[in-house]
């Protein structure tokens, strides 16, 4: 069978594996129809009569917006796409315009910003309908679609009244899915609604970031307009950073968003299409990978060693989840050259000396920068695994050895034993959130005690909304917090990790500055939207995205750590169940891969520390169960007494099993 056939088969196969139904479906934020309608009037200015005719299923009746009046409609949560409306017979001098916003802070006749950040919050302007107004149904030109909004303001911009009704938006994200709610995975923590909500908000956020390849943002639209008709890759759909903006492929963001895709929709093709464009744009000769995917009129540049590393790590992630080694082979020559580029940046100190200093927005990513080096170490370990899968054993051996040597240098030069944290480089006293989180997550630490000290040290940055990152002034960065969250679980500080979800994700999901559905790109120490104000975003709070895939780290962390289910070889041919329950009593969930349904359900009897795990795993696989706690014990499997004193049971074949253990 030709490869393209296999892939088609492979991806179509995925959509059959829908997660079981249950109370968790009530948390699913994806709309049940691709045509969505406003559910409430948020605000009116001036005189609007029969405004309720603009809501819900009232498709055949009209409201009247008097001259120079406006009305703001609420879609109930984040949506994105192409608006249609029906106009009655109107005066030839009547005029109408549309404006969109995610945050209610920017409700009014002018949209929030998506093209260029301007301190006046007014770059994008409004979309004027043709003049004179047509009669009958009118639909926005597709290039003017709005990728992310919750509120739509309809303004009569002359002194004439306008008769209008039948407002709807055709959703353009997830163009390849008929039923947006047909998730292949689920997560449910009974009585812990915030955790379940965090999981589903992340899943929906990444759906809003999965867009047609020809609907990327044009970064050079003139003031007072916006255009989302840039072609940003070769194949559709494609995974981008955010729904409203940048609508561009960003590899760092994918390091969080792709695991979210895996556990919720198993929709990996958009990620592969993103990686494809990044490799195709490798700089000839040097092997440097671009900072972001193709951005018309803006040369993304070869300016970020950290994002270069994220792209390489992304190849391993995609392979681990999909098993698609054929695709890895198509980029292998460029991939190897790109690993070589990073190796060539290693100087006599044994650490990588950063050349491309751009990163997620943080400052100070120069010299022997800790996060860039931790990412490089992860590149070496994942490259080793990929090379072994391709039988490239000699280069695998060199990469593995280089990883070991580099890890030693990382500890020798960057570990600050007095602080119990890694420094950002050997000449600073700054202990970064990103570098320390990566160090635990990517196993740069030498022992568990060290990881626990770092985990504790990181809480020194916390306020009531989460970690105030030391590497960028006045910022809480949910992207980085997503890595920190995983690091606390790896350090077995489960309650600390759950507390981080409650603070940072709890804030994003409840603040009335945002959309209470999808997740914010970032915010300031006091929770305002002035994210990165002094760092490129020009004090334009209207520019901040409210649906950013990089902020969805809680989704995969809840599946991989709290539920405890991970794949340890492609598609879960081998797997592991190692719950991190903290104070929780019961959790269930699972995901689908090309091998079938992987389900786990566990509950804890706190009085005697018993944990009971129910597994439902595809036949033909095998895996390991690890009972939580340093002295966990396994008591029985499928009713047979076992008494495994190290709490670890290996080589469990696929199928349905009940494992009982004691957590200590
Ligand atoms: C329209 O929506 C209202 C309120 O949700 C409902 O009572 C009514 O039955 C709906 N009408 C139609 C025709 O679906
Ligand atoms: C309502 O709008 C839809 C397009 O969204 C259109 O197909 C339909 O004909 C309109 N209905 C009326 C009564 O105008
Ligand atoms: C439209 O506006 C023009 C200029 O203000 C005016 O001369 C004309 O009478 C108006 N037409 C209608 C139908 O109101
Ligand atoms: C959010 O809530 C606060 C406190 O209740 C209130 O002062 C503020 O006006 C609200 N903001 C928005 C945008 O609704
Ligand atoms: C995008 O839309 C604008 C405005 O309609 C048009 O001028 C431009 O040619 C379009 N670009 C592409 C790539 O289709
Ligand atoms: C590898 O990179 C070169 C540019 O250096 C590019 O022309 C080529 O298309 C890339 N190959 C793939 C498979 O992306
Ligand atoms: C070391 O890190 C600090 C903090 O990030 C940064 O300000 C400084 O420029 C870095 N020094 C070197 C030599 O890269
Ligand atoms: C690697 O070698 C094994 C054993 O010889 C073989 O089964 C497998 O097909 C090879 N894989 C690749 C990608 O060449
Ligand atoms: C291994 O590391 C050394 C020292 O940094 C470097 O010169 C060499 O190119 C690396 N090898 C590979 C295959 O990356
Ligand atoms: C972490 O690295 C150590 C060597 O420093 C190794 O023994 C251990 O297996 C690694 N842990 C994981 C989870 O890869
Ligand atoms: C763990 O690693 C730290 C940092 O290198 C070291 O100081 C400490 O002695 C180690 N602890 C143990 C128990 O090996
Ligand atoms: C733990 O307590 C539960 C509820 O009381 C009981 O059903 C279970 O048998 C106990 N398990 C052990 C190992 O004692």
From TrEMBL:
Any one Gene Ontology BP term: carbohydrate metabolic process
Domain of life: Eukaryota
Positions of the Alpha-L-rhamnosidase six-hairpin glycosidase domain: 238-455
InterPro entries in UniProt: 6-hairpin_glycosidase_sf, 6hp_glycosidase-like_sf, Bac_rhamnosid6H, Bac_rhamnosid_C
Keyword Chloroplast appears in the UniProt entry: no
Molecular function terms, GO-annotated: hydrolase activity
Domain Alpha-L-rhamnosidase C-terminal residues, every copy: 573-633
Name this protein carries in UniProt: Glycoside hydrolase family 78 protein
SUPFAM superfamilies (UniProt xref): Six-hairpin glycosidases
Organism: Sphaerobolus stellatus (strain SS14)
Keyword set includes Transcription regulation: no
Endpoints of the signal sequence: 1-17
UniProt KW keywords: Hydrolase, Signal
